[in-house]
Design goal:
about 450 residues, alpha+beta, 8-stranded mixed sheet, binds adenosine-5'-triphosphate, binds aspartyl-adenosine-5'-monophosphate
């Protein structure tokens, strides 16, 4: 802007640039201008008018861009303070470590600009170019998710986050006071998105908040995160849904490389990483094949034992399998299909040919889970029997249980953790970097 607000602090030097002939008067007013700028507190918000030019060294040689970043110099003509700083900035962005130090090392080596310190000053912290880039990429991920699904005849829905019962029957729900009676924050839009399909909405998707009261103080868990969920009727096979999910994820991976090239380069200045290796033909491994790969490699779990035929892999096992898959198939992205029925939630459809296995899958990026999905039981009687077998009384789910009694189509779906996905694409190392105001078990200290 060339007009300044009367209440703002201003300085307007005569036009001067490094390459123009300057009178003594020009030089002295320029010197006082430089002094004025030097005394501005760091992180003051200013608007600047000037000319952009390619930067040159003292010999006049034009400096080239480095690491894919464009390099420009701004020859300042006018500058106005539009946002006064009244308190010293809590840290310098340039002091932030390239890699986050693990908490133990922090304690030994004294205070650094730790993630917790950044998060305690989050609004200020978000101003850093790296954070700006992360949240523009995150916005692109949501845009690309919508874009692909809209092209494939999905309808966006928003489901209720206040529930009368614990969503999936687990213990990890937040209980809230609701006019003197209990209510719960939705742990997943799972039941609601299924009800939308039963209500004949066709293919549906949602990008919405998910709340989990898990005391998981890890680099990949939050207590509130965003789910990118979808659900659809299927004709012959749940792989119809798997193909849609594979398509949407590839659209996201490719799309951000095209839309956010510059932001990705900025993120790499703090979080150095290789771009994801995604083959055209997606690697789909059966769960049993994953177990075989692990056993053949001689892998042992932390307790020294081999992986069982039908156990749910723990995080180190998942990561190790990701490494084996990368070595064998050269991919950072793969699908693990046909999970043991035992380890999946009650609504999961068992494989009709062998009920030990289920028509369900997880998707992994750089060896970590980003999605769970699969076919759901659509037969009312079978669903109620499965609920009882997993220790949940069908009536607890009221509207959900009732809905199946009026006929439900065969259907399947899946849910992606948005922050997990962004963290893993950009190798941020800590999920908190992918959430603007992250909530974890240590939030809101007394
Ligand atoms: P994730 O496995 O990534 O947590 P999820 O929601 O599918 O995703 P499960 O695989 O069913 O969860 O894991 C079972 C439980 O164990 C969940 O409550 C999950 O949060 C918790 N959990 C998983 N990995 C860890 C970990 N490394 N540390 C603490 N808790 C974990
Ligand atoms: P699941 O519980 O596996 O599946 O969750 C789906 C995806 O959500 C992400 N995620 C998390 N992200 C951050 N913090 C957490 N605490 C957390 N927990 C899970 C992961 C995970 O893959 N109803 C099913 C989905 C479906 O079948 O449609 C479900 O919620 O990326």
């Amino acid at each position: 802007p060339t007009q300044h607000h009367p209440s703002t602090e201003t300085a307007q030097p005569h036009h001067a640039s490094a390459h123009s002939q300057q009178s003594n008067q020009d030089l002295s007013s320029r010197a006082s201008f430089v002094k004025w700028i030097q005394h501005l507190p760091r992180e003051s918000l200013v608007t600047v008018t000037g000319k952009l030019q390619k930067p040159a060294n003292a010999q006049g040689k034009i400096l080239e861009a480095s690491e894919g970043l464009q390099c420009v110099e701004l020859v300042i003509e006018k500058m106005f303070v539009v946002g006064r700083v009244t308190e010293t900035a809590p840290f310098k962005f340039t002091d932030i470590q390239v890699h986050d130090e693990p908490a133990e090392q922090e304690k030994e080596q004294g205070p650094k600009i730790t993630v917790r310190n950044e998060l305690n000053n989050r609004v200020f912290d978000l101003r850093s170019p790296v954070n700006q880039a992360i949240f523009r990429i995150r916005a692109s991920v949501c845009h690309l998710f919508r874009d692909y699904l809209e092209q494939h005849r999905f309808t966006e829905i928003q489901t209720a986050k206040l529930q009368g019962s614990a969503t999936e029957g687990g213990a990890s729900v937040f209980r809230v006071e609701y006019f003197g009676r209990p209510a719960y924050l939705a742990q997943s839009p799972q039941l609601a998105k299924q009800m939308a399909v039963i209500a004949d909405m066709g293919r549906v998707y949602e990008i919405g908040s998910i709340f989990r009261a898990e005391n998981s103080n890890t680099m990949r868990h939050l207590t509130e995160f965003y789910g990118m969920d979808l659900e659809m009727p299927i004709n012959a096979d749940y792989h119809e849904c798997m193909r849609i999910i594979d398509g949407v994820l590839k659209h996201i991976f490719k799309g951000i490389q095209q839309r956010n090239r510059r932001e990705i380069q900025v993120v790499k200045t703090r979080f150095p990483h290789e771009d994801l290796v995604i083959p055209d033909e997606t690697v789909i491994l059966r769960y049993t094949e994953g177990v075989r790969l692990l056993r053949e490699s001689g892998y042992r779990k932390e307790d020294g034992s081999e992986v069982e035929d039908d156990e749910d892999f723990d995080t180190p096992t998942e990561k190790y399998l990701g490494k084996l898959v990368k070595e064998k198939y050269n991919t950072d992205y793969y699908i693990l299909d046909k999970f043991p029925t035992e380890v999946r939630p009650f609504y999961t459809m068992p494989d009709p040919e062998d009920k030990k296995w289920s028509n369900s899958f997880d998707i992994f990026v750089r060896g970590q889970e980003i999605l769970s999905g699969g076919q759901r039981i659509h037969d009312s009687k079978m669903l109620e029997a499965k609920m009882r077998a997993s220790g949940v009384e069908p009536s607890v789910f009221g509207e959900y249980t009732q809905a199946f009694k009026y006929g439900a189509p065969p259907h399947a779906g899946g849910g992606i953790g948005l922050e997990r996905l962004v963290m893993l694409i950009l190798q941020l190392g800590n999920i908190r970097h992918a959430s603007m105001f992250p909530r974890d078990p240590k939030s809101f200290p007394e």
